[in-house]
């Protein structure tokens, strides 16, 4: 298809054409959302289409840097719709996490459902992944391979009955051909889902990898096994978390590197998505300057977040609750935790639920330490908000580590940093990429519960805390008196008499 039509389409122009120009499509304005694309997103789509339609005999690679909130998912789903115009391509879309894949599918199906013309078929889209987790997502059944097989088997039964018992007017020979074709498809699909058929035997001409900066180089060998692959699109952000590698030995050998990062080090050309739609400008300003050289700008006149009016309702966008050193970190075999921060977070969730419950739809509670996450999940008011049965009555609360929340977003984020000591040791909190992910999950409000004195020993954290002091608010609400009251109330409410006695007379738990 001539690129001029897609180029005009991306500019929001209405084009009339003949069947010679675009087969099976009457007007090219039938796909929604093109007018909402910014120049960097349109440039990405046009670049990929030029690579796909080019006559190069070697694999073409397109690197795309996508900072937080820049609409990577929306852009990829729009690219998929454009590629469907070409009709001759078979496309693989993959990501290192099931969440990233399902978000892509959800966005793609949503935009397809809004389309007034049907030049595509939903049956051309198929998702394969962890069965136990996909079985809990009923909205995905239209494209889920397991559900597709069940519907296919029902169709086979109906066709067999028609062949055996149908009236004489039925063209049985034709039905038999359809029956055996569907049977073959069903058997092949069953082989695929059970993993008996070689992944290498699949034929893909285009591969799009989302969150590519989290994919180990070794895993990319699966993609390069497709001998007819002519275009590879890597979408990622090297300023966010790298691939997860648990083995220290493999870390020393560099197994936590991604192909995305390697190509950037080799100064391979890339495209930057430079407009973010997620965060309040006060939240995005510091990471944009610190991690993205000031090239990331906020979309101020469009986007669902801005138009929702929440920017006007929320005054305390950036807040730090400073917990004193007397509430120092503690360590178990499973990791670090901080009881003082737990109490503050419990109070904050109750406060936000009471004051802003109607405005805030989601709250993300983040901590870098798994032990702190485990303890916060046990808080009574967190349990009530996590329960799906009451998700309509409360802001939905999710609690996880920084790694677990990459790629996600929440109306309000509460970050528990845990570390509080006189030595100024902050462990892996000094990882700039982990800090970037943690503070870019929020749309409207960002609350950091920490000990300033400990974190200020690190230059990056010192810069961030200084920014909040200048543009937000820092509360010493964690003074010893208020924390003592909170702790005593907690012990009384939970009827922990022995703990209450130890705290009152010995100052410890």
- State the major sheet: 6 strands, parallel
Q: Name the structural class.
A: alpha/beta
- Give helix % range: 40-55%
Query: What is the radius of gyration?
Result: 27 Å
Can you tell me the residue ranges where pLDDT is under 50 for at least 5 consecutive residues?
Answer: 9-32, 187-198, 503-509
The helix tally amounts to: 22
Keywords: ATP-binding, Helicase, Hydrolase, Nucleotide-binding
GO molecular function, one term: helicase activity
Domain DNA2/NAM7 helicase-like C-terminal: 255-452
Protein name: DNA2/NAM7 helicase-like C-terminal domain-containing protein
Short description:
By secondary structure, the protein is α/β, with parallel strands linked by helices. It comes from Zophobas morio.
Description:
This protein has 509 residues and is an alpha/beta fold. Helices cover 44% and strands 13% of the residues. The protein contains 22 helices and 15 strands. The strands form 4 sheets. Strands 12-11-13-14-8-15 form a 6-stranded parallel sheet, sandwiched between helices. A 5-stranded parallel sheet has the order 2-3-4-1-5, with helices on both faces. Helix 14 (339-356) crosses helix 21 (480-493). Residues 9-32, 187-198 and 503-509 have low confidence and may be disordered. GO terms for molecular function: ATP binding; helicase activity; hydrolase activity. One of its GO terms (cellular component) is chromosome. This is DNA2/NAM7 helicase-like C-terminal domain-containing protein.
């Amino acid at each position: 298809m001539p690129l001029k039509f897609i180029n005009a389409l991306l500019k929001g122009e209405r084009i009339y054409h003949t069947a010679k120009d675009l087969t099976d499509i009457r007007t090219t304005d039938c796909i929604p959302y093109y007018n909402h694309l910014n120049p960097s997103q349109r440039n990405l789509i046009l670049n990929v289409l030029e690579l796909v339609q080019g006559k190069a005999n070697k694999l073409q690679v397109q690197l795309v840097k996508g900072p937080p909130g820049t609409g990577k998912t929306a852009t990829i789903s729009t690219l998929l719709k454009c590629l469907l115009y070409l009709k001759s391509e078979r496309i693989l879309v993959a990501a290192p996490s099931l969440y990233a894949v399902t978000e892509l599918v959800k966005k793609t199906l949503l935009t397809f459902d809004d389309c007034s013309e049907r030049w595509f078929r939903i049956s051309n889209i198929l998702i394969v992944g962890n069965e136990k987790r996909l079985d809990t997502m009923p909205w995905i059944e239209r494209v889920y391979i397991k559900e597709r097989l069940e519907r296919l088997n029902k169709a086979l039964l109906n066709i067999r009955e028609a062949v055996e018992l149908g009236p004489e007017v039925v063209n049985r020979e034709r039905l038999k051909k359809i029956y055996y074709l569907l049977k073959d498809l069903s058997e092949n699909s069953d082989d695929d889902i059970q993993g008996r058929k070689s992944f290498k035997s699949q034929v893909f001409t285009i591969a799009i990898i989302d969150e590519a900066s989290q994919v180990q180089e070794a895993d990319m060998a699966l993609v390069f096994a497709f001998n007819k692959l002519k275009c590879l699109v890597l979408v990622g952000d090297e300023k966010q978390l790298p691939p997860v590698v648990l083995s220290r030995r493999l870390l020393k050998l560099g197994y936590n590197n991604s192909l995305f990062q390697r190509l950037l080090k080799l100064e391979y050309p890339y495209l930057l998505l430079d407009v973010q739609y997620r965060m309040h400008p006060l939240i995005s300003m510091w990471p944009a300057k610190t991690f993205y050289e000031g090239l990331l700008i906020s979309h101020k006149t469009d986007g669902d977040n801005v138009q929702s009016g929440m920017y006007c309702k929320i005054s305390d966008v950036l807040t730090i609750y400073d917990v004193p050193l007397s509430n120092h970190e503690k360590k178990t075999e499973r990791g670090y935790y901080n009881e003082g921060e737990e109490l503050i977070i419990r109070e904050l969730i109750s406060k936000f639920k009471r004051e802003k419950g109607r405005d805030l739809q989601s709250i993300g509670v983040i901590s870098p330490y798994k032990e702190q996450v485990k303890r916060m999940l046990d808080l009574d008011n967190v349990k009530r908000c996590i329960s799906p049965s009451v998700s309509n009555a409360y802001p939905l609360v999710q609690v996880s580590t920084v790694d677990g929340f990459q790629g996600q977003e929440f109306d309000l984020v509460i970050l528990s940093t845990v570390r509080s000591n006189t030595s100024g040791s902050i462990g892996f909190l000094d990882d700039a990429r982990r800090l970037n992910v943690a503070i870019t999950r929020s749309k409207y409000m960002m609350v950091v519960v920490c000990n300033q004195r400990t974190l200020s020993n690190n230059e990056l954290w010192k810069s961030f805390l200084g920014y909040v002091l200048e543009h937000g608010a820092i509360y010493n609400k964690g003074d010893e008196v208020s924390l003592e009251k909170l702790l005593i109330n907690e012990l009384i409410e939970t009827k922990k008499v022995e703990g209450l006695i130890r705290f009152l007379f010995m100052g410890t738990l």
